[in-house]
């Protein structure tokens, strides 16, 4: 889970590459890190390479590739691959040398295919092998490397001869090479000792082959050189430690090799090298370097030697006669820094922002005696070139600043057209790009316009006409300039005025109730085409004009509906199209859905469309480091968002939008906040729909939820479940991260109340918690009581006298209910014939040796203190106290305790029965209840409080467990055919007084509520003497629309 820095960076070809012009060079680097690093390629220390032209840059996964096509000699130099992410940066480098293409040499194949294992390729780069070897050692090296290509060996010797001749400027005789090689061929049996038939060809075709294992050493210099500053006549010592011992090294002063002398001392001890310069003088001031070069590697270390500034002939201190001066250069031009020192031939080092500058294709340094020049070609408007430049000469330095500006020649448009109505204010605008801010001059008919109507900002100049007239119509010229240059643009303005009056209005014909008119077009149409005429008439006896038509398309019209013998006046007006203004700026520009490929820009329409429908929207952007706005996309009028892909990853952009109608492009919207183009990674949104189930005191609680709507740009790794105990505000984790959308929370304290919440996790971290659950008590849930009777007993039981009968019943409920059996409204108690066996889950009554007295209705009841709870009500039930205090119980009192409080509140008094329906409770509030008994002496102590209950809605269909009789029970009590029928919340009671044989038959009961209905039947037999027959129907899970009922269940048998 800990992000890794990009510490794995390996340049697969980090060696000195020698190529010939017109070839191609390829560098491949392997990078690694978390997050995946961004890679950039640099040439030298400060020039960044970009994709395009001859340069191709690719990055696929962990492989970064740089390819340079058609290389030239100017491409020679050091190339660096720099990998970075938010945790750090690392780099590696390689040198490339490009030689002019010669007929005498060529490179065959790609370097990567040449770097083969010596077991697979036996060819040797003989020239490189022998280049730095003493000719006396040629035989030793030929045997060591098993060279059998004797012709190639001869050609290599010839090539070395030619190179030495070019370096020395004279012919080098290699007759001793010839003699040695002839002797060598004779020894190995490849040549007759007396033969002189040996030809040394001047043509050499070299293949770059590596026959020994390629050793790519990233850093040969373990301890690099350090700058030395000494007093005159003192000694300066440069020390360096190599990666390993090697003979391929040399010391350089500038570009010249150093050899030991009375003044120069060179020491070597294994990997340690030392250069001492004795009796230092100002002439010794220079850059000294150690260069290590082999066939597959190259490395160097450079340091400066400075001597306290005195020359050989005078005691003056080194100083700048002409120091550097600040430069301001236009983009694309060449920046030139010049200085002059007090002494000649003093080395000067150049720095930009304290980073040393190395010559390249665009950076050139020149020295002419005391004068030193730094030229930077083709500068651009970015941080690559702008900054502080410093020249160091000994201990002296001179600093100047380079500012790159852009002349105001980049106009968004150089010829615009505006159209406006006469008298309607208009703003004409010309956008430009320049730094620093430019000055603008507006001209009309070659006359300068008043400056109080001109407004110029950093990127736009405007001219405002408050009351345009027809005389203001024409061509406007805009001149804009700053100290770096200038530019011009033109605007064509058309002012639309009202047309003139029509000419020669005449009556050409009259008829019964009609007059035909004709006229000529007006002399002036106001600048736009006449599209219709308006004809009006007026009775000479009246003062008001009446419209005859407003859409006469030609200069003639017949007016109808006139009264005979009446006199009328007529008039005609011409009508032109209405010219609109440009729309207002769009509103609420928002940039969203940002990824490394682009973003989405959305906006709202402007408040005013200028009087003409909007035809399109123009989206513009600019780099945060630039002041230049560029159009990037055009959308239709009904599209209020656009996906922008023409952007560069990891750059910051600012966006704005303009609306356009037929009058032109309106003002831009307010600019958006800067947005960085990259894949967003942020915490996810909270999980959704947290719910719970299966709450109990032993196995805990089971939670489920749904994933968050937004994963934050990274996949969800898991979830953290938290809980908070009542009375504290501390949320504690419920264990380790959960990978699924469910969790079983255990380890709860029985009786305690807990709230739960969940957070989602992605790669960045945890989300905000979801909405917490209500507080839930860690207890077993209260179940619904259920009594199941033997189906054979539901229709009644007939037994012979003296036989044994059993009445079994299954009783279910949590917590275990109290069970009571009654016979004819009397509590049934065990005796020598009657036994009651009640165990958890069931209860059975057994009667031995039955008699006629046992004929009756037997009822079983399961009781708890609270029957059920509804949304705003609760149904309570209790039993009588064991002792009545010596006096009859008159009534009962109910008290209530609201969760979170300590005071009991009296909510009901004078209750006669053993149950009560309590209303007026608050939804989603938790309550506890207790009951007091009242007699003539007063109130008893309160009962034990009930378990806390939560008021909430519960709905269910009625379900009838037992058999029912046919009685209409749409109300709680009622009369049906003279029979008394009543319904409480647990059973239905139908009583038939003085039953007779005709009362026998099948009885049916139907229960109904808003959720449906259910019915049942019971078969009644009348035998023996007259008696009061009572039938009971059990109602299980019976819910009334406005409140929930049951906690007492009854089942009955008629014996």
TrEMBL record:
InterPro entries: FN3_dom (IPR003961), FN3_sf (IPR036116), Ig-like_dom (IPR007110), Ig-like_dom_sf (IPR036179), Ig-like_fold (IPR013783), Ig_I-set (IPR013098), Ig_sub (IPR003599), Ig_sub2 (IPR003598). SUPFAM superfamilies: Fibronectin type III, Immunoglobulin. CDD domains: FN3. Keywords: Cytoplasm, Disulfide bond, Immunoglobulin domain, Nucleus, Repeat. Residues 6-97, 213-306, 781-873 form the Ig-like domain. GO terms for cellular component: M band; nucleus. It is found in: Cytoplasm; Nucleus. Residues 501-584, 585-680, 686-781, 859-954 form the Fibronectin type-III domain. Its main location: cytoplasm. GO terms for biological process: cardiac muscle tissue development; sarcomere organization. It comes from the Eukaryota. Pfam families: fn3, I-set, THB. Belongs to the protein kinase superfamily. CAMK Ser/Thr protein kinase family. This is Immunoglobulin superfamily member 22. It comes from Oryzias latipes (Japanese rice fish).
């Amino acid at each position: 889970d800990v992000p890794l820095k990009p510490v794995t960076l390996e340049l697969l070809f980090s060696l000195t590459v020698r190529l010939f012009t017109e070839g191609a060079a390829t560098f491949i680097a392997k990078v690694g890190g978390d997050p995946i690093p961004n890679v950039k390629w640099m040439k030298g220390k400060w020039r960044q390479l970009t994709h395009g032209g001859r340069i191709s840059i690719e990055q696929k996964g962990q492989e970064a590739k740089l390819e340079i096509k058609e290389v030239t000699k100017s491409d020679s130099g050091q190339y660096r691959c720099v990998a970075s992410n938010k945790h750090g940066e690392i780099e590696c480098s390689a040198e490339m040398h490009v030689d002019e293409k010669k007929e005498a040499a060529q490179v065959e194949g790609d370097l990567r295919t040449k770097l083969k294992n010596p077991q697979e390729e036996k060819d040797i780069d003989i020239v490189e092998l022998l280049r730095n070897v003493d000719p006396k050692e040629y035989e030793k090296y030929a045997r060591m490397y098993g060279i059998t290509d004797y012709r190639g060996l001869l050609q290599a010797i010839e090539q070395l001869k030619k190179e030495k001749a070019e370096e020395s400027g004279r012919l080098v005789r290699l007759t001793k090479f010839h003699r040695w090689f002839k002797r060598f061929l004779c020894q190995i049996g490849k040549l007759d000792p007396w033969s002189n038939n040996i030809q040394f060809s001047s043509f050499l075709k070299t293949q770059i082959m590596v026959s020994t294992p390629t050793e790519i050493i990233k850093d040969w210099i373990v301890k690099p050189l350090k700058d030395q500053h000494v007093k005159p006549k003192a000694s300066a010592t440069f020390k360096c430690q190599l990666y390993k011992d090697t003979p391929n090294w040399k010391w350089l002063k500038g570009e010249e090799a150093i050899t030991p002398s009375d003044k120069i001392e060179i020491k070597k001890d294994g990997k340690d090298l030392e250069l001492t310069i004795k009796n230092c003088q100002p002439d010794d001031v220079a850059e000294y370097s150690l260069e290590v070069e082999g066939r597959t590697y190259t490395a160097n270390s450079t340091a400066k030697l400075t001597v306290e500034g005195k020359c050989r002939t005078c005691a003056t201190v080194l100083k700048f006669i002409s120091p550097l001066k600040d430069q301001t250069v236009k983009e694309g031009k060449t920046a030139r820094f010049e200085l002059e020192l007090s002494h000649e031939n003093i080395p000067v080092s150049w720095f930009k922002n304290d980073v040393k500058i190395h010559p390249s294709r665009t950076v050139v340094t020149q020295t002419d005696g005391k004068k030193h020049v730094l030229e930077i070609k083709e500068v651009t408007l970015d941080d690559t070139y702008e900054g502080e430049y410093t020249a160091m000469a000994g201990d002296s330095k001179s600093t100047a600043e380079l500012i790159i500006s852009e002349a105001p020649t980049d106009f968004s448009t150089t010829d615009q057209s505006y159209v406006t109505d006469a008298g309607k204010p208009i703003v004409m605008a010309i956008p430009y790009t320049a730094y620093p801010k430019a000055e603008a001059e507006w001209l009309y008919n070659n006359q300068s316009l008043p400056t109080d109507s001109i407004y110029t900002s950093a990127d736009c100049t405007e001219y405002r006409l408050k009351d345009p007239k027809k005389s203001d119509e024409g061509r406007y010229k805009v001149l804009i300039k700053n100290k770096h240059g200038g530019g011009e643009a033109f605007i064509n303005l058309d002012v639309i005025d009202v047309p003139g009056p029509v000419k020669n209005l005449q009556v050409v014909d009259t008829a019964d109730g009609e007059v035909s008119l004709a006229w000529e077009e007006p002399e002036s149409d106001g600048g736009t085409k006449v599209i219709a005429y308006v004809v009006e008439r007026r009775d000479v006896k009246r003062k008001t004009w009446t419209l005859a038509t407003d859409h006469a398309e030609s200069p003639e019209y017949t007016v109808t509906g006139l009264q005979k013998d009446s006199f009328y006046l007529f008039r005609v007006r011409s009508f032109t199209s209405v010219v609109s203004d440009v729309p207002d700026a769009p509103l609420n520009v928002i940039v969203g859905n940002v990824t490394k490929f682009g973003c989405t820009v959305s906006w709202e329409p402007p408040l005013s469309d200028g009087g003409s429908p909007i035809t399109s929207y123009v989206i513009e952007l600019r780099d945060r480091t630039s002041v230049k706005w560029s159009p990037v996309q055009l959308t239709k009028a009904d599209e209020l968002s656009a996906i922008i892909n023409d952007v560069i990853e990891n750059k910051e952009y600012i966006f704005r939008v303009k609306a356009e109608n037929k009058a032109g492009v309106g003002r831009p919207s307010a600019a958006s906040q800067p947005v960085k183009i990259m894949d967003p990674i942020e915490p996810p949104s909270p999980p959704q729909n947290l719910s719970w189930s299966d709450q109990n005191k032993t196995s805990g609680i089971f939670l489920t939820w749904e994933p968050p709507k937004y994963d934050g740009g990274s996949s969800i790794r898991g979830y953290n479940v938290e809980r908070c105990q009542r009375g504290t505000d501390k949320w504690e984790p419920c264990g380790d991260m959960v990978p699924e959308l469910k969790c079983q929370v255990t380890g709860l304290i029985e009786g305690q109340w807990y709230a739960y919440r969940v957070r989602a996790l992605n790669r960045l971290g945890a989300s905000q918690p979801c909405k917490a659950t209500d507080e839930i008590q860690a207890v077993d849930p209260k179940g619904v009581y259920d009594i199941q009777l033997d189906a054979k007993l539901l229709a009644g039981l007939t037994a012979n006298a003296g036989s044994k009968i059993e009445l079994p019943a299954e009783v279910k409920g949590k917590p275990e209910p109290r069970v009571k059996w009654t016979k004819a409204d009397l509590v049934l108690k065990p005796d020598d014939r009657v036994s009651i066996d009640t165990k958890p889950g069931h209860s059975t009554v057994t009667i031995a040796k039955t008699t006629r007295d046992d004929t009756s209705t037997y009822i079983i009841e399961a009781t708890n203190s609270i029957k059920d709870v509804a949304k705003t009500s609760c149904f309570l039930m209790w039993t009588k106290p064991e002792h009545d205090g010596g006096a009859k119980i008159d009534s009962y009192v109910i008290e209530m305790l609201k969760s979170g409080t300590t005071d009991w509140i009296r909510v009901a008094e004078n209750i006669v029965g053993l149950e009560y329906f309590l209303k007026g409770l608050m939804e989603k509030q938790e309550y506890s209840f207790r009951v007091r008994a009242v007699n003539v002496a007063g109130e008893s102590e309160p009962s034990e409080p009930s378990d806390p209950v939560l008021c909430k809605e519960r709905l269910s269909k009625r379900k009838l467990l037992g058999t029912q009789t046919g009685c209409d029970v749409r109300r709680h009590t009622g009369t049906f055919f003279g029979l008394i029928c009543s319904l409480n919340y647990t059973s239905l009671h139908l009583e038939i007084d003085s039953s007779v044989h005709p009362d026998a038959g099948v009885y049916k009961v139907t229960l109904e509520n808003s959720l449906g209905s259910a019915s049942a039947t019971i078969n009644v037999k009348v035998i023996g003497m007259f008696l009061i027959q009572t039938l009971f129907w059990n109602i299980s899970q019976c819910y009334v629309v406005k409140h929930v009922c049951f906690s007492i269940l009854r089942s009955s048998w008629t014996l």
